[in-house]
């Protein structure tokens, strides 16, 4: 019996003996819908990390009450996207507006879709033995061993290699965890920057924290903050939902306010009319908000505050998931860390460990009486920590913040098929990133055009996921700057607070940062033997112990915390990269470096080179299509300072053209058919710009393998079409020659995309 197995057994027994009552309480959590158990031994715990042991004691810093509020604002909160953050709702913190009472609606499809991710149990939860049992992955050592006792020390390597250099001058709240990670790796830190180039630049907020980086690697992608604002994320996922409704049903139905208020009202009215017993609940989230700021629940569109005031506020209103999975009667969400290692080729890693953040008031389904109870409905750490019921715990498996693996243990002990939970989560993560990549590539090309010296990028993202009662994961949001703080504030006497290590945070976050650095080691690939991913695979294959593996610079590092999920599972998911192929066309015709918008000439060239114009689609109609869609999108993106057609507008135009040309097919096949046509034309004639390369694996054969099963009968237009949809371009609306001349004479290409103002805030705990 492996050590791991013994450990799991002991832990489960402890849980059983200490948690009889809790189990009873939980009987309603895991109901008949829950898939039958996999044996608890299949759970892969992430044992107490070496990081805690390796941690310094000197980190306790007392602050007086006077300093406290300042420190809190500056340091004590989660990181989220604060770029051009909107004003919070004037409602006092901790208050939610109540509205009409009734039975909530949840239209998220309860049907669970098991993705056939091959050997997922092996990869994330352990290794499968020939007899079918799952063996735990190798445990991580309690402490790093460095030096002469290492069997396979890396001194030879260390002598040959200069230490990797890391500029930490802009790391902000990640600094503590980053320092520890650099120390573990025996790399070299430059806390105040360096005159010559560093290998890695660690930014606390955005790609632009340090400008003029001409080489190395930066831990942020340009445009990630913008893409992960609530409205943009909703738009990006919605575009994918248009094409792949079943694959993207992990995101609650959402409407963008104020522009979709009418649509929202109408749809809800129709739903209620069809079944009077339905009393849905919605959650309203201000765009650019975080830590639960300005969030409130409503039960009817008329309760929207954004509409009531004269100042309409950009927000997302979303179906409220009213049946979350509960533990100890409490709602919780999961924070998972995901590394996007590169965009081209796309590489995604998921941390095997995450955080579970608990509410501090027992959950009840939303009703008129409890709509304003934030401690019951919102899982944000920053809110719940203010509740008297918040429990700081040194244990990883109790308290208001726990490790995700401790939650999995708990679920496994009750018979939950946690491999399926993991598999669904991985699938959610990959699909969400697919939705973001097209536009990220546009940002990337604008900031770091090919041929211009610049760094490469990677980024750790924080995925916030809710498990429904039936265990289906639901995406709440993605944080571009997840908190990497490993301390929390503790009151030592009245008015005096100190920052004390938070074992749960340290366990998870140091592991994530350290392994991210290991994966980004500039030497990786040069010396295959030192590639940590490979080491991990070898360990799994051989069943060897990571303690005996040499780490960087002769130390022994624990096995990797981060597991590759893409391209590992390329086959299952590549067909979803359709919008990325549209973005590749967009990039080809973008023209001038640094631009993010397509001018009318570029659009015409795209139509001509792809031979899309014919007797049914004159070039005049093309111009009108361009003007119509571009203008509408410009109104929807008021912040934009660049003229021309943005990627989303181009995608809409593309969908429209596909629908016109391939009338009888469902949208997804219309779009794929048009893509193949365009790509074929461009390949044949070698035309178009150098900009957009197609996503890897988007070969014609894989394109053709798109299933025809998910049709949308009766679908005639893209819902973004509020004015153009359904119109026949041969009878255009905007046919004024003056308007056309004006549009085509504008030389959008000469306008460089202005850099966004550097108003990002430091990361704060969410
Ligand atoms: P913020 O960025 O302000 O934290 P989130 O989108 O993460 O905004 O929402 C805050 C909290 O509200 C989440 O942590 C979760 O507990 C709850 N929540 C958000 N969306 C939903 C939803 N659709 N259904 C149920 N609860 C939700």
Quick recap:
The chain is an alpha+beta fold and 766 residues long. It is globular, with a radius of gyration of 26 Å.
Characterization of the model:
The chain contains 25 helices and 24 strands. It is of the alpha+beta class and 766 residues long. Strands 13, 14, 15, 16, 17, 19, 20 and 24 form an eight-stranded antiparallel beta sheet that branches. Strands 6-5-7-8-18 form a five-stranded parallel beta sheet, with helices on one face. The protein has a four-stranded antiparallel beta sheet with strand order 9-12-10-11, with helices on both faces. The longest helix has 30 residues. It starts with a helix and ends in a 21-residue tail after the last helix. Bound molecules: adenosine-5'-diphosphate (ADP). The site of adenosine-5'-diphosphate (ADP) has 23 residues, from strand 10, strand 12, strand 19 and strand 20.
């Amino acid at each position: 019996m492996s050590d791991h197995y013994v450990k799991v057994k002991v832990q489960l027994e402890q849980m059983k003996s200490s948690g009889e009552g809790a189990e009873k309480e939980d009987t309603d959590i895991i109901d008949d819908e829950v898939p039958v158990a996999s044996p608890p031994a299949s759970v892969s715990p992430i044992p107490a990390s070496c990081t805690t042991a390796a941690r310094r004691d000197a980190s306790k810093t007392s602050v007086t009450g006077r300093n406290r509020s300042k420190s809190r604002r500056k340091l004590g909160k989660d990181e989220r996207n604060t770029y051009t953050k909107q004003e919070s709702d004037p409602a006092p913190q901790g208050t939610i507006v109540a509205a009409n009472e009734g039975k909530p609606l949840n239209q998220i499809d309860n049907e669970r879709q098991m993705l056939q991710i091959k050997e997922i149990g092996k990869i994330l939860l352990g290794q499968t033995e020939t007899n079918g049992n799952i063996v735990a992955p190798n445990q991580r050592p309690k402490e790093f061993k460095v030096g002469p006792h290492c069997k396979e020390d890396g001194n030879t390597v260390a002598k040959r290699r200069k230490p990797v250099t890391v500029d930490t001058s802009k790391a902000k709240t990640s600094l503590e965890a980053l320092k520890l990670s650099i120390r573990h790796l025996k790399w070299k830190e430059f806390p105040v920057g360096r005159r010559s180039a560093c290998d890695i630049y660690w930014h606390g907020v955005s790609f632009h924290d340090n400008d003029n980086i001409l080489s190395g690697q930066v831990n942020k992608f340009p445009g990630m903050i913008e893409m992960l604002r609530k409205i943009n994320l909703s738009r990006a996922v919605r575009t994918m939902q248009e094409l792949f409704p079943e694959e993207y049903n992990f995101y609650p139905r959402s409407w963008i306010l104020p522009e979709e208020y009418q649509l929202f009202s109408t749809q809800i009215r129709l739903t209620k009319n069809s079944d009077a017993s339905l009393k849905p609940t919605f959650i309203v989230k201000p765009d650019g908000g975080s830590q639960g700021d300005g969030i409130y629940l409503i039960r009817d569109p008329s309760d929207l505050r954004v509409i009531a005031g004269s100042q309409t506020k950009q927000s997302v209103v979303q179906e409220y998931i009213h049946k979350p999975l509960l533990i100890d009667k409490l709602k919780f969400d999961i924070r998972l860390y995901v590394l996007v290692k590169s965009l081209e080729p796309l590489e995604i890693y998921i941390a095997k460990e995450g955080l579970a953040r608990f509410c501090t008031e027992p959950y009840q389904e939303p009703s008129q009486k409890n709509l304003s109870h934030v401690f019951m409905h919102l899982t944000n750490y920053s809110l719940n920590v203010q509740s008297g019921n918040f429990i700081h715990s040194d244990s990883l498996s109790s308290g208001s913040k726990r490790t995700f693996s401790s939650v999995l243990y708990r679920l496994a002990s009750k018979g939950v098929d946690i491999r399926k939970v993991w598999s669904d989560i991985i699938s959610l993560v990959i699909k969400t990133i697919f939705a973001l990549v097209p536009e990220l590539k546009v940002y990337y090309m604008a900031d770091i055009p090919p041929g211009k010296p610049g760094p490469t990028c990677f980024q750790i993202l924080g995925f916030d996921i809710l498990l429904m009662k039936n265990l289906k994961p639901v995406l709440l949001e993605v944080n571009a700057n997840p908190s990497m703080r490993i301390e929390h504030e503790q009151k030592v006497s009245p008015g005096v607070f100190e920052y004390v290590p938070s074992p749960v945070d340290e366990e998870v976050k140091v592991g994530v940062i350290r392994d991210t650095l290991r994966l980004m080691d500039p030497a990786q690939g040069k010396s295959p033997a030192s590639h940590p991913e490979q080491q991990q695979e070898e360990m799994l294959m051989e069943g060897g112990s990571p303690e005996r593996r040499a780490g960087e610079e002769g130390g022994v590092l624990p096995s990797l915390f981060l597991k590759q999920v893409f391209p590992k599972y390329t086959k299952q998911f590549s067909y979803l990269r359709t919008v990325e192929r549209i973005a590749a066309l967009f990039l080809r015709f973008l023209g001038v470096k640094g631009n993010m918008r397509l001018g009318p000439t570029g659009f015409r060239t795209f139509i001509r080179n792809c031979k899309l114009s014919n007797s049914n689609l004159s070039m005049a109609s093309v111009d009108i299509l361009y003007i119509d869609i571009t203008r509408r999108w410009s109104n929807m993106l008021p912040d934009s300072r660049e003229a021309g057609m943005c990627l989303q507008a181009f995608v809409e135009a593309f969908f429209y053209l596909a629908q016109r040309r391939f009338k009888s097919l469902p949208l997804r096949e219309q779009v794929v058919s048009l893509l193949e046509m365009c790509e074929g034309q461009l390949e044949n004639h070698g035309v178009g710009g150098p900009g957009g390369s197609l996503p890897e694996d988007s070969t014609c054969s894989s394109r053709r393998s798109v299933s025809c099963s998910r049709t949308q009968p009766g679908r005639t237009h893209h819902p973004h079409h509020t004015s153009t949809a359904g119109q026949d371009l041969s009878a255009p609306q905007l046919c004024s020659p003056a308007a056309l001349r004006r549009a085509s004479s504008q030389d959008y290409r000469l306008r460089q995309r202005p850099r966004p103002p550097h108003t990002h805030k430091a990361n704060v705990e969410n």
